[in-house]
Each structure stands twice: as structure tokens, then as C-alpha cells.
């Protein structure tokens, strides 16, 4: 459908780009000419005021073209500060540029012309600039107009890709190839919104004639990204829930009470609300496509089990897929335990994980295909080709962000439009739900089961560390277990972080000597990890020193203490996840954050966790501090990459784009109308294979 355009040619087609520079571009993820055109400057520098030394305006940003005369180094502040002072001249006079603690700068100026940009001041009768932007340029080259006398783009440099090379290559791409970039909107739409044409917008992002043009270009391209993202979401939602009917389950009061009798507790109000939302979906013919979110320990699994058993009561099979064998096993045990609460339950469960013996696996697969199994609890193994269901009615995906769109779809395709329930314990800030989960209905468990003791979180300062280890020794002596979490596996010289290995050795020899320690990290083989976890679970290990591999799904009630080393290296949401791993038993849980971060900022950020136990609040805080990256593995969600959109800043635009996208998809569900063809092509391009998921491409 989509025609290949020269825009998809390699950047090597551009003058001045050979294999070496192409490799540099590739490192920045720029492969094609299109990639290049859509790699926007990280910033611009307004060098419209191009001046000479004699005419330099004081206090304003100016650009000068000068040549170096000499350079010297000075020490200041008792030798702690090195000043590099370079004298420059042009035909009208001399000036000085000063750099602090950058001795290497001397070597950069070897006689050729230099462009300096910054604010100038007069000091002791001579014009001075501190830390000016600088570029070596050849005053005679015609392409100097790219670097001075205008608003100049600043790109991410790497290898031999200097700013000059970037600009030259970009300008030639713009001149030769930009005219091939199609417009994606009809003319009247552009006019109504006052948007510049697409080609002009891209050009003005790189080389704007003035600041206003860049703003307009930015607004239009942000809108483009929002609309394409929302179109992808809208198409996908339509495909899942609106195109063809699924099945309708009967959930009678009798079934309801039979399921509830399996739980040795009453569901919380929040769980009941979610059960109702899910049951309503299941009764409907259209397939459920719902997200169940809630903090770790809020009781999601129980709610999911309700849905699964309701389907089984309707003689359908169900599958729950978890991201690791550990989690799958845990679910298996939990489900078996609940089923064991009824003496006459005939529900048959099976576990399918990697590394099973062949005959064991064959047994499960055969029973699944014949309909002898009701519930399959599995890892990714469930999506293997030879795994076939007799009649798959409900699919539950745990920790859904660990799976790609394709994997989720593959599992669902093993049934005839089954109901799909995805779960996550990474609460999504409400402002993000629209973007990340725009194609899902959302149920939220916002309350913990009663009687849960909140985990105590502390952020001791350095001087209290010894006391903290003493406290941990006391807990261990009482028979408790502890986690020590470390962010990296191997010593990293640059970051100087304690690796898990090093922490393990130090603790064994020092603070925790005499206790049984074990080390667990991501580079170990699966089986080895499993063995260590089993030993910890069985109580044969007192302290598990680990990298974040334990993040997902560990349930060890006797482990009530967790210490996080270099806590500042973690995102808040991630720390909150880790915290959810403790305090699962009767003992008070203790979550201790160690950090030698100097800045108040880091401590302030971490102290959020001390003050709130609410995953949503933590997520909002994380979002405001670190931006949406944490939450948006956009690729994983099968959404187009967002380069310009800031999900928080652009929320209003996203909402608006959503309305427009829904309208378009409603009247033209596969984007066939002539006025939508370019949009469709653009989506196909952006989504690649994922495009097929949503019925285009
Ligand atoms: P999640 O999957 O959200 O992490 P689980 O469903 O595993 O949470 O529940 C965590 C723990 O709380 C489990 O031991 C579970 O049996 C228990 N639990 C769940 N719901 C309730 C409830 N309503 N009352 C008491 N305990 C509950
Ligand atoms: Mg249904």
C-alpha cells in the first residue's frame, strides 16, 4: 500500500555523508533521510545579531567571527579554579573569551576562524565573553550563513558530527528531499487551524526565519504527533471492541457466591467495584478490553481470578500470562490454594513455563487442546505456536507493560475474540492514562485490604547508617529476612556505584557477618536465580543482596526489611514497586533508602516515598520530576514515538486530537477515504509491523 519514497533512502545519499558519518548518524538513531529531517534540534541559538568587535552591543546575545591571537591559563580561588583566557581579534579590534575549568579549550583554537556567540561585557577596557558558544568556521565558505546571522539549530553531536556538519547535511536534505514530504491534512483543515504546511513546519523547526515561525512549526508538529498517536489508539480500540462481537458470559448470583466462597475474606469495596465493571464487560457481547490497575498487594489477582472462574463456570478456558516463571508459579500456587478452599471444586489448572521437561510440557499442551484443563497459568510459553486451546474465553495479562502489543494479541488470537483483562501494579498518573492506555477501559483498585500494616519508609542520613545495620541485625536475629537492593551489577568506574557483588562481599565481611547472605543478579542463569529465590523463600538464606531482578513478583512474607543502596539512582515508581515486596506478612515492614546524593533535590524526591504510600501520588510526583519516559515505553505500547510531545504540557492538545481521531475512525474505520490516505500512510510508516494490529498496513 505505502509506496517507498526517496525519503526512506539512507542518509548516505546526502552529499558529505560517507560511511563514517552515516555510522555516527546511526548511533543517534538516524538512518534514513526521513529520520534526519525529523531529528529536530535540541535547542536553537539566536545568532541574528551578527556583529564585529568594535560594534558589539553589550549585554545582548551576539555572534562574532574572530581569529585566535593567543591563550593563557590563570589560577583563581586559591588554585581551585582554572581560567583559560583566549584573546581573539577581527578587523575592528580585540576581545577576550574566558572559560572556567576547561583547559582543553586551548587546543581547540589552532589559528582558523572561530564563531563566538554569547553575551559580551566590558571589563577593564576590553570586550569579554564568558563561556561563549564557539565553532570553528571558515570565513570564506558560503555556508557560513548556516552558522551565523540567523537562528541557528543546535543538534546532538557525536563522533565526527559537529554542529557544522549537521547543519550542512540538514540543509541539503531540506533542499533536495523535503519537497517529497507529503502533507497529511486537507487544505481547509490547515487553514482553519492556522497551521503551516508540513514541509514549512519541518524546515522552520531547523532553520526558522524568526522565533514566531518556529513556534508555529512546533505547534503543528506536536499536533501531528498527538493526532497520529490517538489515531493508532482509536483504530486499535475499534478493532478490539467494536468490530466483531465476542462472547457473552452468564454470571448468575449462584456463580457469584460460589466464587466468593473460595476467598477466606470479603472483597474490599474497591475490589467489588472492579468485579462489577469486569462482570458487566463479560456479560456484554463485545469483547472486554480492560486494564485493572492497583498498587502491589491491593488484591488484583483475586479480582482477576474472579473473572477467570466466572468464565470457567461458563465452560470456557482461561489463561493468565505472567512475565516470569517465578510469577507464574506464584500465581499457580495462589490459585491452587484458593481452589483448595472448596472441597468440590472441579476446576483443573495447569502451569506452563520455560524449561519444563518435554513430557510434562506435552501433557499440559494436550490437556489444554482437549479441553481437559480449565485454567492455564503461563509465561511467554503460552504464545508458542503449538499451544492451542480448546475454547479460550478470557485472557489475563499480568504486568502488562512487560509484554509487547504483538505478544498480547498473539495470545488473544488463540481464542475467538476472548475477553482481555490486563493488569499492572505500576500505577499510571491519571494524566497519562489517556495516552498509554487510551485503547483500554480502566478499573482501579484504590484501597488496600484491611489490616495491612503500612510499610515504614525511612531515609536515614549517612551518620545513622551504622544504627540502621544494627537494627537489621536485630531483625535477622529475630528470624526475619531482608533484601538489600543495589542498582548495578558490576563496578562502574564513572559512576562509582557499589555493585551488588561488591555490596555482597562488604556486607558479608562487615555489617552482616555471621548471617547467611546470597547474591542474586540479572546476569545469572535463570535456573540459578530460581535456586537462590527458592532458598530465600525456604528460609535458608537470611539476606538476599540483589539487583532489581526481584522487582517483579516476589512474595516472601517473612522478609520484612528492604534496604536500597544508592536509592537516588531509581525512579520513584520503581522504588514504590520494590517497597510493595515487603510487609506482606504479619511483621511491620521497613523500607530503608540509602543515598549519598548531595543535592537537596534528590533527597526531596526520595522523601516523597517517606510521606506517601499511595502509588498514584508517587507516580504523579515521578512524572512531574522525571517526565513521562518512565511510563512510556512507546514502542512497547505499539504507539508512534513521541519526539516533541510532552504528555503533561500537551494534555489539552492530546484531548483534542483524541476527539478528532475518534471522529475520523468513526466515519472511516480503516482510513480509506482519499482525504485520509496520507494520514494512513504516515501511520503505516510510524507503526511498521504494529500497523497490522490495528487493521492498517
Ligand atoms: P496484587 O495482585 O494486587 O499484588 P493480591 O491479589 O496478590 O494483590 O493480594 C495480596 C494479598 O492480599 C494476598 O495475600 C491476598 O490473598 C490478600 N487479599 C486480597 N484481597 C483481600 C481482601 N479483600 N481482604 C483480605 N486479604 C486480601
Ligand atoms: Mg464479553
State the major sheet: 7 strands, parallel
Number of strands: 22
CATH architecture of the domain at 253-284 and 299-424: 3-Layer(aba) Sandwich
Sheet/helix structural class: alpha/beta
The stretches of 5 or more residues where confidence is low (pLDDT under 50) are none
CATH class of the domain at 253-284 and 299-424: Alpha Beta
Shape: globular
Q: Strands of the largest sheet, in order across it?
A: 12-13-11-14-15-10-16
Q: Give the number of helices.
A: 21
Q: Looking at this structure, what is the CATH superfamily of the domain at 253-284 and 299-424? A: P-loop containing nucleotide triphosphate hydrolases
- Helix fraction, binned, reads 25-40%
Q: What are the bound molecules?
A: adenosine-5'-diphosphate, magnesium ion
CATH topology of the domain at 253-284 and 299-424: Rossmann fold
* Mean pLDDT value: 87
Radius of gyration: 30 Å
**Residues in β-strands, percent:** 15-25%
Quote the distance from N terminus to C terminus.
Answer: 7 Å
Report on this model:
It is a single chain. It is built from 21 helices and 22 strands. Among the domains are: 1-43 and 161-181, Orthogonal Bundle (DNA polymerase, domain 1), CATH 1.10.150; 49-149, OB fold (Dihydrolipoamide Acetyltransferase, E2P) (Beta Barrel); 253-284 and 299-424, Rossmann fold, CATH 3.40.50.300; 456-612, Rossmann fold, CATH 3.40.50. Helices cover 36% and strands 18% of the residues. The strands form four sheets. A seven-stranded parallel β-sheet has the order 12-13-11-14-15-10-16, with helices on both faces. Strands 17-22-21-18-20-19 form a six-stranded parallel β-sheet, sandwiched between helices. Strands 3-4-5-7-6 form a five-stranded mixed beta barrel. A hairpin with a 2-residue loop joins β4 and β5. The structure holds adenosine-5'-diphosphate (ADP) and magnesium ion.
Amino acid at each position: 500500500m505505502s509506496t517507498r519514497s526517496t525519503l526512506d533512502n539512507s542518509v548516505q545519499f546526502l552529499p558529505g555523508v560517507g560511511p563514517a558519518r552515516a555510522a555516527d548518524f546511526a548511533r543517534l538513531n538516524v538512518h534514513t533521510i526521513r529520520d534526519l529531517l525529523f531529528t529536530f534540534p535540541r535547542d536553537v541559538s539566536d545568532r541574528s545579531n551578527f556583529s564585529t568587535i568594535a560594534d558589539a552591543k553589550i549585554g545582548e546575545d551576539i555572534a562574532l567571527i574572530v581569529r585566535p591571537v593567543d591563550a593563557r591559563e590563570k589560577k583563581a580561588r586559591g588554585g581551585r579554579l582554572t581560567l583559560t583566557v583566549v584573546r581573539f581579534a577581527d578587523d575592528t579590534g580585540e576581545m577576550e573569551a574566558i572559560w572556567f575549568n576547561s583547559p582543553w579549550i586551548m587546543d581547540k583554537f589552532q589559528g582558523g576562524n572561530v564563531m563566538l556567540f554569547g553575551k559580551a561585557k566590558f571589563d577593564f577596557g576590553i570586550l569579554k565573553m564568558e563561556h561563549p558558544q564557539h565553532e570553528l568556521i571558515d570565513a570564506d565558505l558560503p555556508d557560513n550563513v548556516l552558522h551565523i546571522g540567523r537562528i541557528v539549530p543546535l543538534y546532538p553531536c557525536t563522533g565526527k558530527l559537529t554542529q557544522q556538519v549537521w547543519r550542512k547535511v540538514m540543509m541539503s536534505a531540506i533542499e533536495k528531499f523535503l519537497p517529497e514530504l507529503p502533507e497529511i491534512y486537507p487544505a481547509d483543515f490547515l487553514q482553519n487551524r492556522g497551521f503551516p504546511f508540513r514541509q514549512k513546519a519541518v524546515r522552520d523547526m531547523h532553520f526558522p526565519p524568526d522565533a514566531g515561525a518556529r513556534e508555529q512549526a512546533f505547534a503543528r508538529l506536536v499536533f501531528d504527533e498527538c493526532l497520529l498517536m490517538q489515531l493508532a489508539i482509536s483504530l486499535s480500540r475499534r478493532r478490539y471492541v467494536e468490530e466483531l462481537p465476542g462472547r457473552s458470559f452468564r454470571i448468575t448470583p449462584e456463580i457469584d457466591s460460589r466464587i466468593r466462597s473460595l476467598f477466606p475474606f470479603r472483597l474490599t469495596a474497591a475490589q467489588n467495584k472492579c468485579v462489577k465493571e469486569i462482570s458487566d464487560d463479560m456479560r456484554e457481547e463485545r469483547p472486554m478490553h480492560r486494564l485493572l490497575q492497583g498498587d502491589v498487594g491491593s488484591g488484583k489477582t483475586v479480582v482477576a481470578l474472579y473473572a477467570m472462574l466466572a468464565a470457567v463456570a461458563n465452560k470456557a478456558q482461561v489463561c493468565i500470562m505472567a512475565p516470569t516463571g517465578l510469577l507464574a508459579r506464584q500465581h499457580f500456587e495462589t490459585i491452587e490454594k484458593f481452589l483448595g478452599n472448596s472441597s468440590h471444586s472441579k476446576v483443573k489448572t495447569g502451569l506452563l513455563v520455560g524449561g519444563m521437561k518435554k513430557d510434562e510440557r506435552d501433557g499440559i499442551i494436550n490437556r489444554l487442546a482437549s479441553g481437559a484443563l480449565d485454567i492455564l497459568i503461563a509465561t511467554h510459553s503460552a504464545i508458542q505456536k503449538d499451544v492451542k486451546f480448546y475454547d479460550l474465553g478470557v485472557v489475563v495479562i499480568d504486568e502488562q507493560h512487560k509484554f509487547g502489543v504483538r505478544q498480547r494479541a498473539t495470545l488473544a488470537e488463540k481464542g475467538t475474540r476472548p475477553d482481555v483483562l490486563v493488569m499492572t501494579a505500576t500505577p499510571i498518573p491519571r494524566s497519562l492514562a489517556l495516552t498509554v492506555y487510551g485503547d483500554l477501559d480502566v478499573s482501579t483498585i484504590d484501597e488496600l485490604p484491611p489490616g495491612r500494616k503500612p510499610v515504614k519508609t525511612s531515609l536515614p542520613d549517612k551518620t545513622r547508617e551504622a544504627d540502621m545495620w544494627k537494627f537489621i541485625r536485630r531483625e535477622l536475629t529475630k528470624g526475619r529476612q531482608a533484601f538489600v537492593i543495589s542498582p548495578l551489577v558490576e563496578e562502574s568506574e564513572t559512576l562509582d556505584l557499589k555493585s551488588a557483588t561488591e555490596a555482597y562481599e562488604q556486607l558479608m565481611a562487615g555489617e552482616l557477618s555471621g548471617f547467611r547472605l546470597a547474591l542474586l543478579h540479572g546476569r545469572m542463569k535463570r535456573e540459578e536465580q530460581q535456586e537462590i529465590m527458592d532458598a530465600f523463600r525456604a528460609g535458608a538464606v537470611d539476606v538476599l543482596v540483589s539487583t532489581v531482578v526481584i522487582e517483579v513478583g516476589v512474595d516472601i512474607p517473612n522478609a520484612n526489611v528492604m534496604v536500597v543502596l544508592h536509592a537516588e539512582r531509581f525512579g520513584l515508581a520503581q522504588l514504590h514497586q520494590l517497597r510493595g515486596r515487603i510487609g506482606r506478612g504479619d511483621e511491620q515492614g521497613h523500607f530503608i533508602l540509602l543515598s549519598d546524593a548531595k543535592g537537596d533535590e534528590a533527597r526531596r524526591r526520595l522523601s516523597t516515598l517517606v510521606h506517601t504510600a499511595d502509588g498514584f501520588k508517587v507516580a504523579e510526583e515521578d512524572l512531574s520530576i522525571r517526565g513521562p519516559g518512565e511510563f512510556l515505553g512507546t514502542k512497547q505500547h505499539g504507539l508512534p514515538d513521541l519526539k516533541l510531545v510532552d504528555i503533561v504540557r500537551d494534555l489539552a492538545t492530546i484531548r483534542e486530537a483524541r476527539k478528532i481521531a475518534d471522529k475520523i475512525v468513526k466515519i472511516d474505520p480503516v482510513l480509506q477515504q482519499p482525504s485520509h490516505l496520507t494520514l494512513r500512510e504516515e501511520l503505516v510508516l510510524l507503526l511498521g509491523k504494529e500497523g497490522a494490529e490495528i487493521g492498517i498496513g
